[in-house]
């Protein structure tokens, strides 16, 4: 008998869903509805054993999107009735200093997610729209919010506070929240399993490298430091985001280049990172260009590698003793060359890759046998992690 | 016979000078003129064997300040004629991507320092005023510019480039320049002497912790990474500067707190760091408060320590193999507690302090005998470094 959770990730104009079998971890169905509210939306529904449905049509709002997806389950399957639905899990980006774990959604929780909107103006309102529509669509089921930030609430003040005016920070809730928490939690837990050791004895560094990228230092299953900050702009070099940069650059750009704050925001969030350095934000293209000897792609990889090495070094210091490093997400799982530059020259710190293992595929150890710190590729699965947290809470 | 250099550090409303015996390294005289241009200036002149002169009086401009100091040498000594002056050394903050070493000043160099003013709007124009006045005051001598940034020009692109739009960066000369270079150079060189090894074989981390603070990774006498950025705002927690912070915080403060760019600039540069966290920017007061158990001072020290440990870890990674770490400047030389928190928990990385040595005074090793990486306190002497570079160039 299946026990399943319906997992929802709602953006301002998109809706991603997955029906997850919590016990096997398998996706029973999934889909993506894009350009909601525009005249030409696109909707996709897929499941093992059925032909993928793709429709181009106008989808006016999130409620309409849910109507569409219910129809697909009805028409093409799988049957939601047969899926033994335990509840609905919602990815919520910003849980602030309040939510340190998944929580059952009620009016009060919705209000709190709304109160946190100033800290995630692009995400929380959209997540909330998804929650409202989903509660109308699946009225009989428990709904659970799973926060991107929750896993990082164990980060101590020494690491989550910025060195700014303490009253200003308190008034405007300025601190490091961190993101990708669901992924870091999933991967660090899986890593402990793979090492065959109890979670609370394993110290690890998780490098989640996707379009967004972040690193987390995990001590005994708890996040103690992460590279994103109050917003997802800080830290590593990303697809289109700069990651860390001297804040003085912003003042300089404002004064000398005459850019407005909004323009600089767009510059650093949307036109920087790989995109700003090379003209493409897609790592596959950057790697291809680097292989072809294109200078700016080669240099971009060096910048990416330098930033990663510095972060790994910093986290080795924060952890004191590190058992393993895990790479995950689109780049982390698939780009051997990035993993190589990320750890190049760290042999003296006990980190030695095995080139052949690094060139392989799938979940595996990629460090050499003599490496004091093991290195692994661990595919992430945020939907499964959300489903499990929902099941734990309501199952 | 003495060979001396007159060293000048000109701020917009201040003038610091020192007459340095380049061979012995001793200061033959020194002074500080403050609040130039205001109605109540203050001027001090001191030298071994003479009573310190302190005058409160109006000093209208830098030329006037030079007039005053010449008078003091005339009246109270020491005699400038007897000092066998080789030349005059000027501290210049921003040398851009152009000046990788000290350079003899001519009209062309002055023009280039002026062209770099947009990158150091508070400093280069003042440095230039000092240069102009000094050339008028000491017309017969070679004048040399010694740049805070020069030592860091060896930092490779992977470390000095930000991950932003490459054209914007090129157009506005946005990159990491780094500062305190004269100090980092002096200390890393002295450290190699103390280790009894050739400079080009020593890898070190220098922690310059004063009101401004920066860390540098030095490989074989060359800077390969530093914590300050395009401006001196980036990196470590400082007296009144935040150091690193999620750039997204700036956008948030602008939108949510309604602060202007100038106000945020002031907040991060003048009201942050120790001052913002505790109410005082002076580390002595913070340490006293922490000893008295005042919570916000204890927490500030933890934030300072966390940032330092992360930086040390990052530089261990960048260096691959590290021989020694040196603490310098006001805090680095004098605050045993800060050195302790900076390296706490790094035993696993081969760094072990000896508490008794750490509690001592003066230039010395403070690591335990078994520490794989040696740790030293090395008092900095930027005036002497400037004097030596002048002597090397013109002597
Ligand atoms: N085979 C591959 N080799 C290199 N990079 C890859 C590969 N597959 C995907 N990527 C990269 O992964 C990134 C997207 O990762 P992903 O985790 O899907 O991002 P996100 O979930 O943050 O949108 C893109 O930069 C893409 O180029
Ligand atoms: N004995 C001491 N113990 C602790 N901190 C000290 C001591 N002496 C000086 N400091 C600190 O050193 C800092 C100033 O360092 P300094 O190198 O003179 O700064 P800068 O040259 O950048 O202005 C101040 O925070 C001061 O409190």
Automatic annotation (TrEMBL), chains A, B:
Cofactor annotation: Mg(2+); Mn(2+)
Main location, first listed in the record: cytoplasm
Species of origin: Agrococcus citreus
Residues the record lists as binding substrate: 91
Record-level Gene Ontology MF annotations: kinase activity
Source superkingdom: Bacteria
Quaternary structure, from the entry: Homodimer.
Catalytic activity, EC: 2.7.2.1
Classification via SUPFAM superfamilies: Actin-like ATPase domain
Positions of Mg(2+) binding: 9, 382
Active site: 148 (proton donor/acceptor)
Pathway: Metabolic intermediate biosynthesis; acetyl-CoA biosynthesis; acetyl-CoA from acetate: step 1/2
Keyword vocabulary terms for this entry: ATP-binding, Cytoplasm, Kinase, Magnesium, Metal-binding, Nucleotide-binding, Transferase
Keyword Flavoprotein attributed: no
Cofactor note: Mg(2+). Can also accept Mn(2+).
Family membership noted in the UniProt record: Belongs to the acetokinase family.
Protein name as annotated: Acetate kinase
Residues engaged in binding ATP: 16, 208-212, 282-284, 330-334
Catalyzed chemical reaction(s): acetate + ATP = acetyl phosphate + ADP
Role this protein plays: Catalyzes the formation of acetyl phosphate from acetate and ATP. Can also catalyze the reverse reaction.
Entry's localization field: Cytoplasm
């Amino acid at each position: 008998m299946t026990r399943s959770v319906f997992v929802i990730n709602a953006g301002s104009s998109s809706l991603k869903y997955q029906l997850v079998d919590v016990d096997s971890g398998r996706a029973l169905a999934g889909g993506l509805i894009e350009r909601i509210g525009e005249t030409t939306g696109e909707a996709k529904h897929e499941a093992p054993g059925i032909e993928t449905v793709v429709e181009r049509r106008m989808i006016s709002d999130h409620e309409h999107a849910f109507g569409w997806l219910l129809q697909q389950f009805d028409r093409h399957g799988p049957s939601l009735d047969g899926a033994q639905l335990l509840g609905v899990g919602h990815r919520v980006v910003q849980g602030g200093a309040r939510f340190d774990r998944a929580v059952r959604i009620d009016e009060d929780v919705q209000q709190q997610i709304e109160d946190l909107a100033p800290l995630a103006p692009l995400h929380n309102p959209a997540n909330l729209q998804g929650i409202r529509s989903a509660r109308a669509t699946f009225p009989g089921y428990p709904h659970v919010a799973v926060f991107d930030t929750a896993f990082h609430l164990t980060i101590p003040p020494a690491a989550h506070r910025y060195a700014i005016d303490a009253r200003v920070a308190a008034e405007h809730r300025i601190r490091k929240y961190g993101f990708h928490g669901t992924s870091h939690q999933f991967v660090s837990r899986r890593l402990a399993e793979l090492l065959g050791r109890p979670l609370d004895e394993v110290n690890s560094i998780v490098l989640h490298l996707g379009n967004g990228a972040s690193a987390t230092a995990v001590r005994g299953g708890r996040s103690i430091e992460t590279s994103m900050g109050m917003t997802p702009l800080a830290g590593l070099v990303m697809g289109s985001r700069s990651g860390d940069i001297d804040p003085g650059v912003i003042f300089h750009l404002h004064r000398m280049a005459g850019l407005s704050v909004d323009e600089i925001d767009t510059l650093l969030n949307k036109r920087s990172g790989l995109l700003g350095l090379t003209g493409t934000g897609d790592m596959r293209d950057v790697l291809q260009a680097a292989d072809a000897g294109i200078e700016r792609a080669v240099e971009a990889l060096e910048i990416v590698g330098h930033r990663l090495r510095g972060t790994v070094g910093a986290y080795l210091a924060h952890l004191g003793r590190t058992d393993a490093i895990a790479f995950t997400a689109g780049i982390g799982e698939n780009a051997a060359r990035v993993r190589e530059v990320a750890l190049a020259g760290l042999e003296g710190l006990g980190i030695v890759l095995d080139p052949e293992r690094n060139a392989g595929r799938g979940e595996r150890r990629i460090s050499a046998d003599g490496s004091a710190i093991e290195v692994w590729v661990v595919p992430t699965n945020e939907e499964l992690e959300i489903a499990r947290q929902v099941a734990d809470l309501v199952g």
